[in-house]
Amino acid sequence: MKVGVVGAGSIGLLFAAYLSRRFNVTVYTRTEAQASEINKFGILLKNSGRTISFVTALPFSEWQGMEDLSIITVKQYQLDDIIGRILQMPAEPENLLFLQNGMGHLEKLQSLAVPNLFVGTIEHGALRENSYTVSHNGFGVTNIAVFRGDSNQLFRFISSAPEEFPFVFKERYEDMLLNKLIANAVINPLTAILKVENGDLIENPYYLKVLDSLFTEIAAVLELDNAQSDLERVINICRTTAENRSSMLKDLEANRLTEIDAILGYILAKANKQDRKVPLLESLYYIIKGKENGGREVVK
Q1: Torsion angle in degrees (nearest 10) through CA of 281, 287, 290, 293
Q2: Would residue 180 show up in a list of annotated catalytic residues for this protein?
Q3: Where does the Ketopantoate reductase C-terminal domain start and stop, copy by copy (predicted)?
Q4: Which end of the chain has the least Cβ crowding within 10 Å, N or C?
Q5: Does the domain spanning 175-292 belong to CATH 3.40.980.10?
Q6: Domain 2-170 bears CATH identifier 3.40.50.720
Q7: What are the pLDDT digits (tens) for 119-164?
Q8: Domain spans of the chain?
């Protein structure tokens, strides 16, 4: 089975390294320089040890979507370029798996005529150290569900994936993405602003009060049916990933754009439609936006 991995950030490198153990993998990079280095050195994966995976790397401009499954690992704010590329292809791909945070990308996917569209959420922690090295510092699973189309190719992929890098099929993509959105909306902005690891949010009683207040606003906007259970799940994620640094924190530290628009921005838009006041959520959103690129307007 041929698998394309579009994007060679931390998640793209992580997926390409593990999936190359069972599949014929091609990774598509933003620059020709990164593709050249991956082809020369392979992908160095650091977990409990070190392994090198040799894959084919090509610049994104050469992606035609001809693999049996293409996995889109770029950040949500980079999706417009991906979707524009797909719409310009002579023949649209058959099977695409999108792995983005938030839920704002669902509307974008409606524009695609791709027969089989899948979406997923990632529980792994990863850090890209250079153009071809990735550190796997948080083990979990990848949840995937059908957004539209036939699940046969998805099950074929899941059944062949490496056991040490598991994929879990979910019946309802809405529930899967909502659960991830709630966790991201609480944990990511708080850890990014406070510059702390996930576990600090529940170990520090004052941070925990802020976490609870933020969750209360989010639960009201999303009209959660079982808010207490959802809160306990968020707290448990903080506990089980206590030493993890959130992706939003790492993005700010690296002076990159964050996915705040796809996460808090999505919830804030819903709150505005409901004419609901969410002062804490709104404040955190603007603080993160202010930290991006020193508060200057950026072109996405």
Answers
A1: -100
A2: yes
A3: 175-292
A4: C
A5: no
A6: yes
A7: 999 999 899 999 999 999 888 899 999 999 999 999 999 999 999 9
A8: 2-170, 175-292
